[in-house]
Amino acid sequence: MIDVKDLRVIRQGNEILHELSFRAGAGELIGLLGPSGSGKSTLMRSLLGVQMLSGGTLQILERPAGSASLRGALGYVAQSSSVYLDLTVEENLRYFAGILHEPRSEVGRVLAVVSLTTLAGRVVSSLSGGERTRVSLATALLGSPPILVLDEPTVGLDPILRRDLWRTFDELAKSGTTVVVSSHVMDEAAHCARLLLLRDGRLLFDDSPAKLLAAAKSSSYDEAFERLIESQS
Ligand SMILES: Nc1ncnc2c1ncn2[C@@H]1O[C@H](COP(=O)(O)OP(=O)(O)O)[C@@H](O)[C@H]1O
Ligand SMILES: [Mg+2]
C-alpha cells in the first residue's frame, strides 16, 4: 500500500527528512510518533503527494505519490481543523461528498462510523474539540479510501475521547484500511500495532510497541524513547 525508499525532503535549505524507508500493507495501524518538529507532518504531506521531494521514491498503491490516479485513495485529516464552523455536521459532509462526487448515502454511513449520527444537525462551532475531530475524520472517510493519514487527531483531547478515537482507528484497520496516525504524545504508542519513531527527520525505530519497551527494558514509552535516543547517539 505504501512504499517509501530513501525519502529526502529539504525545505528552505534544511534537510527535514533524511533517507527514510518503510513499507506498509493493508490493514496496518501505524503510529508515527516523535517530538514536535521531528518531521511527522512533512512525512504525511509527502504521502499525500503535496510535498516536493529532494530524493528517494514514494509509491502509494504502486503509483508515485501525488499521481492523479490516486485521487480517492487517501483520506487525510490535517493538524488544523478543515471543516466549516458555520455549517452543521451534515452540511459539511454533504458539501465534501459533493466535491468528491460521492453519493448522499455516504454521508449517513461515515457519520455512523464516527458515532456522530445524533449530532448531524448541530452547527460545528457548537461542538466540543473531540466532536469536531470526529467531523474531520468523517470527511476523510468519504468514499472509503484504502489509506487514512491522520495528523495528530488526538491532540488536546481528554483520555476517554482519545481512547474512543483509537478504537475507531483500530476498527478501520481491522476492516482493511491502512491507518497512519501521528502524535507527539509517546503514550499513544500503546494503541498501535506498529510504531515508527521519528527524531530530527530520522527513523529511529520501526516495530511493535512491545518490542520498544523490551528493547529499552522499560515500562514507560517516554523513557523507552529517551533510551533509544541515547543508545543511538
Ligand atoms: N514551510 C516550511 N519551510 C521550511 N521548514 C519548515 C516548514 N514547515 C516546517 N518546517 C520545518 O520542518 C521540520 C519538521 O516539521 P514538521 O514536519 O511540521 O514536524 P512535526 O509535524 O513532527 O512537528 C521542523 O524543523 C520545521 O521547522
Ligand atoms: Mg506536525
Characteristic terms for this protein:
globular, 26% strand, binds adenosine-5'-diphosphate, 233 residues, alpha/beta, binds magnesium ion, six-stranded mixed beta sheet, four-stranded antiparallel beta sheet, single chain
Describe the structure.
- By secondary structure, this protein is α/β, with parallel strands linked by helices.
- It has a domain at 83-144.
- 33% of the residues lie in helices and 26% in strands.
- The chain has seven helices and ten strands.
- A six-stranded mixed β-sheet has the order 6-7-8-3-9-10, sandwiched between helices.
- The longest helix has 16 residues, at 159-174.
- It is globular, with a radius of gyration of 18 Å.
- The structure holds adenosine-5'-diphosphate and magnesium ion.
- The site of adenosine-5'-diphosphate has 12 residues, from strand 2 and helix 1.
Structural class: alpha/beta
Give the integer mean of the pLDDT values: 94
Give a count of the beta strands, DSSP E runs of length 2 or more.
Answer: 10
Ligands bound to this protein structure:
adenosine-5'-diphosphate, magnesium ion
Helix run count: 7
H/E element order: EEEHEEEHHHEHEEEHH
Beta-strand content bin: 25-35%
Q: Sheet with the most strands?
A: 6 strands, mixed
Helix content: 25-40%
Low-confidence blocks of residues: none
